[in-house]
Amino acid sequence: MRIDLHNSTFNLETAVPEAAKMLLGGGIAVLPTETVYGLAARASDEQAVHRLVRLKGRSENNPMALAISGLKSLSEFVSDMSGLANRLARRCLPGPVSIVLKVPPQSEFFNLPEYVQKLCSKDGFVSFRVPQHFFTFPVLQKLDEPLVLTSANRSGEKELTDINSLASVFGNEVDFIADDGDAANKKPSTVVKIDGENYSILRQGAVSAETIQRLTAKMILFVCTGNTCRSPMAERICEKLLAEHFHCSPDELERFGYVVLSAGLAAGSQPASQNAIEVLADKGIDLSNHCSQLLRETHVRYADYIFTMTRAHRETILSAFPDADTCMSVLRIDGGDVADPFGGSLSEYQMCAAQIESEIAKRLKTMGLHK
Question: Percent of the chain beyond pLDDT 90?
Answer without folding.
Answer: 87
